[in-house]
Amino acid sequence: MTTTAALTIDRLRVVYGSHSALDDVSLQVRPGEILGILGPNGAGKSTLLRAITGKLRPSSGQIFIAGKALSPGKAYQHSIGFTPQFLGLYRHLTGRENLAFFARCTGVSRHQMPARVSQALEEIELTDNADVRVDQLSGGMQRRLHLAATLVSHPSLLVLDEPTAGVDLGVRLSIHDLIRRRAEQGVAVVVVTHELDEAEVLSHRVALLHQGQLKALDEPQALIQETFGNRQLFVVRTVHMLPPALCERLQEMGFRPCSDESSDESSEWWLESDLPLDRLIDHLYRDLGGAREAIAEVSIRRPGLKNVMQQVTGARSDTAVETVS
Ligand SMILES: Nc1ncnc2c1ncn2[C@@H]1O[C@H](COP(=O)(O)OP(=O)(O)OP(=O)(O)O)[C@@H](O)[C@H]1O
């Protein structure tokens, strides 16, 4: 028996003027699956979400929601719930009033509304503060309410743009639980996040976008295994940010900054290598010479999606292992 995909994207192309923002992207999301969409700035993530939610007309290709072709501007015909990145709540209304408003807007009947609103309030543990105005709620409560405003209509496809941006760990974990519970009930979830550690624990599969192209699509652990096999990473932490000459030296040895693509803002560097740790430390000490007191710690770490992303999108350093061997 085949299950109809909750979302099918077929050879999607979006061109802005002469710039190709999405280039021949195809993927499917099954009911109950959480798909993380990852990629550096400008990769095409928002464009993809706008296409899935019918907010833009693709230059070519098609999108199907539960097997039915999506017409741009007519997403309301499908059961899609979209939670944008920035809070869209009525601050002078209470949580309960906000949920009732969003339920009405998305077609929940008067008859169903009280039960739906109560259920959503319970889900986000806001029942006790349901009648407090939004502007008096904590930031974490507002974030959960923002998500609940989408959940209240019981969409079968949930599209989330950075649902945990700017929240603390406790709120983040409770939002993860909310998303997982809906997925367990059969809801398909597409979630854009810049937090690669989050994507690794939350997503069943991840799609890596770079310059509008789908570079990888797989389960997080499978991607890590495909990219790094059983190799481990050496991570060097420095006591402070290094002067440019030392950054260059580390890069010549094949190290990459952990924080982002900008080497002069990183005090952590990683290297994929088969060398034993003691030999690597010898090389480091020899190569950094008098600057070795800048090293605070050398450790071995399991690669993560962050490293996969750097490997897929960054300039590949093929000389890494040879340089220090
Ligand atoms: N309305 C537009 N007109 C012209 N170019 C656009 C438009 N929207 C996005 N772009 C360009 O398309 C590319 C993809 O943009 P998009 O916003 O989808 O990327 P993103 O992955 O969401 O980035 P970010 O993480 O910074 O939000 C970028 O090069 C961007 O400058």
Automatic annotation (TrEMBL):
UniProt keyword annotation of ATP-binding present: yes
CDD domains on file: ABC_subfamily_A (cd03263)
Annotated SUPFAM superfamilies: P-loop containing nucleoside triphosphate hydrolases
Keywords: ATP-binding, Nucleotide-binding
Domain ABC transporter: 7-236
One Pfam family it belongs to: ABC_tran
PROSITE patterns assigned: ABC_TRANSPORTER_2
One Gene Ontology molecular-function label: ATP binding
UniProt-listed InterPro entries: AAA+_ATPase (IPR003593), ABC_transporter-like_ATP-bd (IPR003439), P-loop_NTPase (IPR027417)
Protein name (Swiss-Prot/TrEMBL): ABC transporter ATP-binding protein
The organism's taxonomic lineage, starting at the top: Bacteria, Pseudomonadati, Pseudomonadota, Gammaproteobacteria, Oceanospirillales
